[in-house]
Amino acid sequence: MQQQCTLKLLPAEAASPEKVQQYAASHFGIPVSAISGFHILKQSIDARSRQPWILLTIRVFMHEPFHERTIQQLVLRDVSKAPQKVIVVGAGPAGLFAALKLIEEGIQPIVLERGKDVRARRRDLALLNKEGVINPDSNYCFGEGGAGTYSDGKLYTRSNKRGDVNRILNILVQFGADEKILYDAHPHVGTNKLPQIITAIREKIIDCGGLFLFEKKVTDLIIKDNIIKGVVTASGDSFDGDAVILATGHSARDIFALLHRKKILIEAKPFALGVRIEHPQSLIDSIQYHCPTRDAFLPPASYSLVQQVNERGVFSFCMCPGGIIAPASTDAGELVVNGWSPSKRNNPYANSGMVASVEMPDIAAWIKKAGGKIPVSVQDPLSAMYFQQSVEQKAFQYGGGKFVAPAQRMADFTQQKVSTTLPDCSYLPGLQSAPLNEVLPDFIYTSLQGAFREFGKKMKGYFTNDAIVVGTESRTSSPVRIPRHPENLQHPQIARLYPCAEGAGYAGGIVSAAMDGERVVAEFVKIR
Ligand SMILES: Cc1cc2nc3c(=O)[nH]c(=O)nc-3n(C[C@H](O)[C@H](O)[C@H](O)COP(=O)(O)OP(=O)(O)OC[C@H]3O[C@@H](n4cnc5c(N)ncnc54)[C@H](O)[C@@H]3O)c2cc1C
Fold first, then answer.
1. pLDDT of res. 162
2. What spacing in Å lies between the alpha carbon of 383 and ligand 1's midpoint?
3. pLDDT of residue 42
4. Mutation test of ligand 1: which of 137, 329, 502, 516 has the most ligand atoms closer than 8 Å to its C-beta?
5. What are the residue ranges of CATH 3.50.50.60 in the chain?
6. Cα separation of 93 and 514, whole Å?
7. Distance CA 63, CA 66 (A)
8. What's the pLDDT score for residue 371?
9. Nearest CA among 251, 250, 258, 223 for reference residue 238
């Protein structure tokens, strides 16, 4: 017999299978010997009281043999001679999951990726971190696995209605992720583990007869009679397909420019912009767990903060406990930061994006204020992208060159005081003390200034000069939407062109991008 129960346990108890079995036995009023094992169905932390608790929902096997958890396995076909092929532009989470789904459906994917494979890409990241040299096709955003590869690998998503989150998590486990992601309330893989998973997915795509090509930057689309027929790459090759999935991510500005040049409808869209904050992890632990030192059985603490300031939303974004701030620029002369953490989250710092919403009237006001000095009109669908780029360029100028980032202590930031010293920080290219109020647009600066003080009231100790503010967190989501028909998900002007995931404005994060990759394939299958 199998029965389910939820136990509220001390962290050390939850970490001991014997203890869990003892508590389960007393819950059901049976001897421990009657229990052959259990599966964890859900695990979360309740840290609201002085004593943090672990909540475990488990399925208990009693009076019957224990069975290991079944991982749903993809059933993939040999598509090397498939009659249909679909071009997938971009090998981020959306592109990879689209390719797997195509194979499941018996269609050959042709994956074209501008960057390099994960291993070669790692060398480019080292060069960026150590020498401040950027490769515009191989960086934290571009290359195999997309922005997902050297990301934090947090797999929590609110987009449950857009697809089957469990299916995505099961596929990740099939390709090597820890089973814990199936039941943890806030699943996380870690930057050190993601590359192997991505490599395993690519190898499977190739084994099944899919094509997977690196350093193939798509620079043009082949369109006849408003139907997409294929793509052209920077090296001059062209590829034909029965459909094209455009999964190029939010940083592929050249793709947005290409669509605009070809008069293919795109739209400017609101996004969010701000900074990355870093605290000592021990401080965040003590605030969140209400104790001077973290219990060894508790994970490094995280937080999620949101505040309205002057009717503008300010919120924390992609919080990385035990993490590192990374240079996420894609071009020279632009400074963008983001964060990641290893699977053990064992770095001494806690970082998080802290961003305010940028609405279309803000872009219009920026254009008006420039009084003709910037060659962009309010109607330009790339206006939000240019705005984003202008802030990144300013941040680069205020930094120390070579991706050294402008930074300020938190209290100094709110007082517009250039910090005389800066605390140690995880950001490898280094920091330059600078007035971030001059780097950020006024409305962003004042929103953050107000929010930081409020956050200090919500989390006592958060507002401190021991925290550092680093500019700029600007690639939160795409500043451009590529429209698609709500039912068939094709571009309204170009048949069989499927704008997909984060770059097109339909996803935010690894899991939602993966689900969107699957969704567009499901729509193509209906008309194949
Ligand atoms: C440092 C960092 C940490 C992050 N942490 C998390 C996290 O913890 N959890 C989370 O859910 N999300 C995280 N994200 C965001 C997440 O990675 C993205 O939301 C996700 O990768 C988007 O998937 P995508 O497939 O839509 O696009 P992307 O991952 O951006 O992939 C797009 C791909 O297209 C390729 N491409 C672009 N232009 C072309 C072209 N012209 N021709 C061919 N190929 C092209 C790119 O090289 C890239 O590989 C993080 C991002 C970064 C940078």
1. 75
2. 22
3. 97
4. 502
5. 85-265+482-527
6. 5
7. 9
8. 85
9. 223
Closest CA to 506 of 171, 242, 276, 245: 245
What count of other Cβ atoms lies within 10 Å of the Cβ of residue 401? Answer: 11
Q: At which residue do the structure tokens 């005081």 appear?
A: 417
CATH 3.30.70.2700-classified regions of the chain: 2-62
The span from the CA of 403 to the CA of 134, in Å, is 9
Q: Are 320 and 152 in contact (CB under 8 A)?
A: yes
Nearest to 106 by CA among 84, 74, 73: 84
Tell me the mean pLDDT per 10 residues along the chain, length 528: 98 98 98 97 95 97 96 94 98 98 98 97 97 98 95 82 89 96 94 95 98 98 98 97 98 98 97 98 97 95 96 96 97 97 94 97 93 87 97 96 98 98 97 98 97 97 98 96 98 98 96 97 96
Transcribe 26-41 into DSSP letters.
HHHT--GGGEEEEEEE
Architecture of domain 2-62: 2-Layer Sandwich (3.30)
- The protein residue whose alpha carbon is closest to atom 37 in ligand 1 is 248
> d(Cα 255, Cα 480) in Å, to the nearest integer?
11
Q: For residue 25, report the distance from its CA to the centre of ligand 1, in Å.
A: 46
Measured by CA distance, the residue closest to atom 53 of ligand 1 is 147
| Backbone torsions φ then ψ of 201, nearest 5 degrees | -65, -45
For the domain made up of 85-265+482-527, the CATH class stated in words is alpha beta
Nearest Cα residue to atom 10 of ligand 1: 509
For the CA of 233, the nearest atom of ligand 1: 42
Residue 407 CA to residue 431 CA, distance in Å, equals 6
CA nearest neighbour of 70 among 24, 39, 104, 101: 39
Cα 97 to ligand 1 centre (Å): 13
Report the C-alpha gap between 111 and 239 in whole angstroms. 10
Ligand 1 centroid vs 475 CA: distance in angstroms?
10
Distance in Å, CA 380 to ligand 1 centroid: 25
- pLDDT at residue 262, rounded to an integer: 98
What tokens appear for 473 in the block? 């967190």
Looking up tokens 């369109």 gives 223
Ligand 1 lining (C-beta closer than 6 Å): 89-95, 112-115, 140-143, 146-148, 150-154, 217-218, 247-249, 252, 255, 318, 326, 328, 338, 340, 501-503, 507-510, 513
**Residue 160: its pLDDT value, please?**
72
In the reported structure, the alpha carbon of residue 148 is separated from the centroid of ligand 1 by a whole-number distance in angstroms of 5
382: nearest Cα among 459, 487, 508, 268: 268
Residue 84 C-alpha from the chain's centroid: 31
74, burial (CB in 10 Å: exposed 0-12, middle 13-18, buried 19+):
middle
